[in-house]
Every structure is written in structure tokens, then in C-alpha cells.
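Intended use. Records like the one below are meant for learning the mapping from a protein sequence to its folded structure. Do not use them to infer anything beyond what is encoded.
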Amino acid sequence: LAGSVSGGCVEPAVVETAMEVIENGKPQMLEFGITEEENIEQIGLACGGTIHVFVERLDW
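Structure written out for the chain above:
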């Protein structure tokens, strides 16, 4: 793992998923955003909008 994605709960969720993908080799698409039921404090996306993160294992 290298670099940064975002603050709030996004980064820990991406790291957790990345560890799963490293283990099982199955790529995953993650989506984070604000819905009417969620608020900024829960998600950590102060700017609003949506973040899509594709996690894939690279075998060198």
C-alpha cells in the first residue's frame, strides 16, 4: 500500500479492503459519498460528492 486516499473513514475502509484483496486476489470497487441519511461527520467527505476507489492486487 502506498499513498493516501482521503481523510475520515474512507482511508481505513480502503486499507481494510486492500488487505482483503491482497489475500484473496479478487478486485473490488468501493464507493463513498453523502446520502440524505448520512451526514458529513459520519463519512468524512467535507466537500460532498462521491469517491470511487478500485482496489486490485498487482502481482509483480
